[in-house]
Design goal:
CATH architecture of the largest domain: Alpha Horseshoe
Order of helices and strands: HHHHHHHH
Number of helices: 8
Structural class: mainly alpha
Number of strands: 0
Largest sheet: none
CATH topology of the largest domain: Serine Threonine Protein Phosphatase 5, Tetratricopeptide repeat
Number of domains: 2
Strand content: under 5%
CATH superfamily of the largest domain: Tetratricopeptide repeat domain
């Protein structure tokens, strides 16, 4: 009987040591998994709830920040998505994905706010450029880079041309009045 008790104690200590070594806290792991289930089912608010609760126990987990950003993005809450994609945490191998999604988010924010569009598009280009440097085979990043670069050039041309058009339009109006 004593041998069984010692064996059980050794097994529990070993498993506990592994969990500490891996940095996985069982309640956080369960919350993370529940969040994934919600996200995959389209329940982004539920996913956010589970992941934000897990974040309390694991504030340095980059995957939680990334997934929370993804859930906000899917809800079209680009402001909050941007905040979570910008979190300065150890990357854990997801930095390229995080930057790619941040580029997408900045593009969406630029579309929503014409006053900050140029700045947002420029930041998005920087994100995609970094992704392309990390992975030159990433075709999506290359396509997005070219798309936003073209949108940025178009916006710059419109900005440069709009004052001239308004002056020209006012001259046309003066000539019509005469």
């Amino acid at each position: 009987m004593k041998k069984v008790a010692w064996l059980v104690l050794i097994v529990f200590c070993f498993l506990g040591g592994l969990l500490v070594f891996w940095g996985i806290k069982p309640p956080s792991r369960a919350l993370f998994t529940k969040g994934l289930s919600c996200f995959e089912g389209g329940d982004y608010a539920g996913a956010l709830s589970h992941w934000q609760e897990a974040l309390i126990d694991q504030p340095d987990n980059p995957l939680l920040y990334y997934n929370i950003g993804n859930a906000y993005y899917r809800q079209e809450d680009y402001g909050n998505a941007q905040e979570f994609y910008r979190q300065d945490t150890p990357t854990g191998g997801i930095d390229t994905w995080r930057r790619y999604n941040l580029g997408n988010t900045l593009y969406r924010l630029g579309e929503q706010d014409q006053q900050s569009m140029m700045e947002r598009f420029t930041e998005a280009l920087e994100c995609y450029r970094a992704v392309i440097i990390d992975d030159p085979t990433d075709l999506d990043a290359k396509i997005n880079y070219e798309f936003i670069r073209d949108k940025l050039k178009q916006a710059e041309n419109e900005q440069e041309g709009s004052p001239e058009k308004s002056e020209g339009e006012s001259q046309d109006e003066e000539e019509q009045q005469e």
